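Page 47, continued from p. 46.
Same chain as before, 307 aa.
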Amino acid sequence: MNKTNSVGFIGAGKAGCSIGKYLTCGRIDITNCYNDVNRGLGNGNYTGCDVTVTGYYSLIKEEARWAAAFTETEMFDTPNEVIAASDSIIISTPDREIKKVWDGLDKELIKGRIICHLSGSLSSDVFSGIENYGGYPISIHPLFAFSDKESAYKQLNNVCFTLEGHPYAVSIWEKILHSYGNETVSIQKESKPKYHAAASILSNHVIAVLDTGYHLLTECGFSEEQARKYTKTLVMTNVEHVIKDGSVSALTGPIERNDIGTVKKHLDVLDDNGKKLYRTCAEILLGIAKEKNPERDYEELKNIVGM
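Result:
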């Protein structure tokens, strides 16, 4: 018989609430999980993927109360109550609070339990000394931007989670997430800053590029709404092409065509910030263009955008 993997949360923000709700509502296939106790790992409770969320603790009691009601779980009065009730404890606080929470936990309760956080930039090393207490550290990060507490969980079935930490903890959470239909990628702790930079560029920095284009269109007579609406097909088609076929195949435009005259005209009409962004992107696009067209001489264009 499969026992329950119990998961409790310290912190009741958007990510913690959404993941807790997802774990209570998501699709479960317990056939993909197995018991690691015979290998001397864990506390004997991780024998299946029938996951139960135990509940929430938060310094802001109203947030914990809301999260518990939202997930139909329990509200805890202390972090140590979460530990006592759970096999995996997810510290779902802001990054700056994770170490503070860890330092304040009763380490005598840690043995055999998995201690998690949801930071994209921090590694599992933030749980310093955990090996001395018999616990298993892991960082779990969904490649997803949580927009709200109430509905974001509905989109998590298509999200990939990155896992980094103790092999036992990683193996358990691989099986849990795979049983919900999620893909996972294991990364090394040294890669966390680079990984998070990539996620930030793809999620946040791309907004700067879009916003620059939208502002240029408003200067040409578009309203802000029109700028977004009428470029939707242009933007979405190109992004879908990149995702489907890769950057090299998707690249078009004056950089790829080596259209020196057009690029000069672009630079002539941009302000200083626009020029910086254009040149930075153009230098990267030139590398992609050269890969796509190795026979083409981009040297003159390279000198222009590098000025």
